[in-house]
Write a structure and sequence with these properties.
The chain is an alpha/beta fold. The protein is about 40% helix and about 20% strand.
């Protein structure tokens, strides 16, 4: 079988300089102190966030700046994420690097930080409005498109399909879902989407229960799409428990050791992969450039690829399947 790899090259738009940023010496903040950059993910437990943390910490060490890593305990806790942003901005950090779990609810605290002279770099999932200084993320719509094309190829463009959503308000996964459905409808009209409106929630356990309920309602289907790590693993576990893993074409998003094992066994047909290390790295680099008054890209897209059993050992794919997290083990 021919190897397949879809890669979105790094897209950098024309450089835009935040004119309000004061130029500071390399590595220094107010009063000559080391820059302090708060990095606030949607959560901290999934492997994806650990890889973001590794990238952010790598950039911080290269730049000689300090990062403060703090995210909500639960990935659906908007109020906690808002409180974290407000607390860290009030503590006088030099910049915020934020993955908003709601594309509207975080507008106000980001605007307040901006008025206090603290710029925000948004990463992974977009924020509405113009209060943030830069946005760095995967082309999530394209990621959904890659998943739809793989399912269409493997099913011959026919059959019944379930798509599980993550949570309302998370722009990144919403774009994946939109890209998936748009491509499926345009290119594979013979595939019937029997469910596309069920939200799995933030954890593997809630995703597992959601898939259990959908399988009970619709019976064995021909294909499944899950848009992030927790929905993919929860869905996989449900299929395994019913003896359906590998019999149903299941394409998911992101990576973990359990998902890699399932891909190697053929229980997963494919995994759409992002580059969370690069996302964390570029976000901290950009935040530091903004504070120092240096040129920076206002929008950047990091790689998105499709991993299948045939290409999972290729170096470019293997690096994204198993990001290097060793920097986290060496202490902060």
């Amino acid at each position: 079988m021919a190897l397949r790899r879809f890669v979105l090259p790094l897209l950098v738009v024309p450089l835009v300089v935040l004119t309000a940023a004061a130029c500071r010496p390399s590595g220094s903040g107010a009063g000559g102190q080391s820059l302090r950059i708060a990095v606030i993910p949607i959560g901290t437990t999934h492997e994806f966030w650990k890889a973001v943390h590794a990238g952010a910490l790598t950039a911080a060490r290269e730049l000689g700046v300090e990062i403060i890593w703090k995210g909500p305990l639960k990935e659906d806790d908007r109020n906690e994420q808002i409180q974290i942003v407000e607390t860290l901005a009030g503590a006088g950090v030099d910049a915020l690097v934020l993955s908003p779990l709601d594309d509207r609810a975080l507008i106000r605290p980001v605007a307040e930080a901006r008025r206090a002279g603290i710029p925000t770099v948004i990463f992974n999932s977009a924020l509405q409005g113009e209060e943030h200084a830069a946005f760095i993320a995967t082309d999530n719509f394209l990621g959904g498109t890659l998943a739809a094309k793989e399912i269409g190829r493997r099913t011959g463009g026919r059959g019944r399909l379930i798509m599980v959503r993550l949570m309302a308000g998370v722009e990144g996964t919403t774009k994946r879902e939109e890209g998936f459905l748009a491509t499926l409808r345009a290119e594979y009209p013979g595939i019937e989407v029997v469910s596309e409106n069920q939200y799995a929630g933030p954890s593997t356990e809630t995703a597992y229960q959601t898939m259990e309920n959908l399988l009970a309602r619709f019976g064995p289907v021909d294909a499944i799409f899950t848009p992030n790590e927790s929905t993919t693993f929860g869905g996989l576990r449900a299929l395994q428990d019913h003896g359906l893993a590998g019999r149903i074409v299941h394409v998911g998003f992101d990576s973990s050791e359990k998902l890699i094992e399932a891909l190697a066994k053929g229980e997963l047909a494919g995994l759409v992969l992002q580059d969370p290390v690069a996302m964390g790295y570029r976000s901290v680099k950009t935040a530091a450039a903004i504070v120092r008054g240096e040129p920076y890209a206002k929008t950047e897209s990091t790689a998105v690829v499709l991993a299948v059993r045939d290409n999972m050992k290729e170096p470019a794919i293997a690096r994204l399947l198993r990001p290097d997290l060793s920097i986290l083990e060496k202490g902060r």
